[in-house]
Design a protein that fits this description.
By secondary structure, the protein is α/β, with parallel strands linked by helices. The protein contains 13 helices and 22 strands. The strands form seven sheets. It has a five-stranded mixed sheet with strand order 17-16-20-18-19, covered by helices on one side. A hairpin with a 7-residue loop joins β3 and β4. It is elongated, with a radius of gyration of 24 Å. The two termini are about 25 Å apart. About 5% of the residues have low confidence.
Length: about 400
């Protein structure tokens, strides 16, 4: 988790001299958004690791806070916990900050777990100052740009080609989004490229094989890096040393489109497409992800009275990977219902969500591996099935492709 905060672990403002180096503005800017979220999967069997970046503006369900940007779960939970403690009489600002941050971390992790449908074993959190200190501790990191850039917001001002960046420059490199073809999405790719370059540096300089240098690097991170209590970071770094040889691949979660929700510009996502994407990305470790069963056959009947809706719905489901079953009409009914047979409840609930929140009912006439949908008068084809999430918003641009963690990749 990369935290967009200009404060230290006790909630105190960073010194003005540090903020100037970070080119991050006043300490009141930013707040507690997790502007960088990357899931790293390191298989126990030594096979290729996978990094999955989660765009910060993805519009998701945040447990306890409703739908909104995924990056905001941390700050919302932090504020709620602090208010709860204040009402109970707590006045120690340092304790309020620390307890609030713990609540924020729990909420952000829970939100990511629910969104991706994968468990998270450990976490690491770093803020702007921490990133700056870590980059300096590495003695500079080499990166590569396809084109020269100049951005007054992040402070990025770099020529094209290979170059070595100090801490302040590295922070500007991974924070820039203005002036890039895909904005935030290109910034995400910058972050992936930077991690790849760091791993390349660690390998070439033998840091993983030199205990004293590895210990020095970990000690330098301790004042800024927050990890969970059960994580032995030194053991993990040794286990993950193979990543420095390029045995990792980065991906970015797919976006279905862009829209405005509650006055905010957000990324709209298709949860089923995200889950499928994550499963495919992690499929290099079949021992841990398991075999993915094919989607069931779906019969669709139209109880709305609107001509052609059953067929268009069946075709849309087919595009999502469902097997097309029988198509027909039904007597008029008010609500859409998904009927399931033996052991089919989970699949029915998944389909019901895709259909926009339909009811599910057990039906002894529905066979195993099959579902039956009756469209009711409340049904309209959801945006996720229409292929265009929001006609009033611009179409989503193609995401930058996955990035191999080998060497020093050149990026926009």
């Amino acid at each position: 988790m990369g935290l967009d905060s200009r404060k230290d672990q006790n909630g105190q403002d960073l010194p003005p001299a540090i903020l100037k180096q970070l080119h991050a503005g006043h300490s009141d800017i930013g707040g507690y958004n997790t502007n960088t979220l990357i899931l790293l999967h390191v298989p126990n069997d030594g096979s290729k690791a996978t990094g999955i970046s989660i765009p910060r503006d993805d519009y998701v369900e945040r447990p306890g806070f409703g739908h909104g940007k995924i990056k905001e779960a941390y700050g919302l939970a932090k504020a709620r916990e602090e208010e709860k403690l204040r009402q109970a009489g707590e006045t120690d600002e340092i304790r309020l900050e620390r307890e609030g941050r713990e609540a924020g971390r729990r909420a952000e992790i829970q939100t990511v777990e629910d969104f991706l449908k994968v468990p998270i074993d450990h976490f690491a959190e770093v803020n702007l100052a921490g990133f700056y200190d870590l980059a300096n501790a590495l003695g500079g990191v080499e990166v590569c740009l396809k084109h020269p850039v100049k951005d007054r917001y992040s402070g990025a001002g770099f020529p094209a080609g290979h170059q070595t960046l100090n801490g302040a420059q590295a922070l500007a490199f991974v924070r820039q989004r203005h002036g890039l073809p895909n904005g935030d999405l290109d910034r995400t790719r910058r972050q992936q490229a930077f991690l790849s370059s760091v791993m390349y540096k660690l390998r070439n300089e033998g840091v993983f094989s030199t205990l004293s240098r590895l210990t020095d690097l970990i000690n330098a991170s301790k004042k800024d890096l927050v990890i969970d209590a059960g994580w032995d970071l030194l053991s993990f770094v040794r286990q993950a040393s193979s990543l420095s040889g390029g045995n990792v691949e980065f991906h970015t979660l797919p976006i279905a489109g862009f829209a405005t929700r509650n006055g905010q510009s957000v990324n709209l996502v298709d949860p089923d497409a995200v889950h499928s994407f994550v499963q495919r990305a992690l499929s290099a470790s079949p021992k841990e992800t398991g075999h993915r069963e094919p989607l069931p056959t779906v019969d669709v009947r139209n109880g709305t009275g609107k001509d052609g809706l059953a067929r268009s719905t069946a075709e849309a489901l087919g595009a999502k990977g469902y097997q097309q079953g029988r198509i027909g009409n039904a007597e008029h009914q008010n609500a859409t219902v998904v009927h399931f047979g033996p052991n089919g409840r989970a699949e029915a609930e998944q389909l019901a969500r895709l259909l926009g929140g339909a009811a599910v009912e057990s039906d002894g006439t529905v066979k195993t591996g099959r579902l039956s949908v009756v469209l009711g008068g409340d049904f309209t084809l959801p945006a996720a099935l229409r292929g265009s999430v929001d006609k009033a918003s611009p179409a989503a641009k193609p995401l930058p492709q996955g990035l191999s963690g080998k060497g020093i990749p050149c990026v926009d």
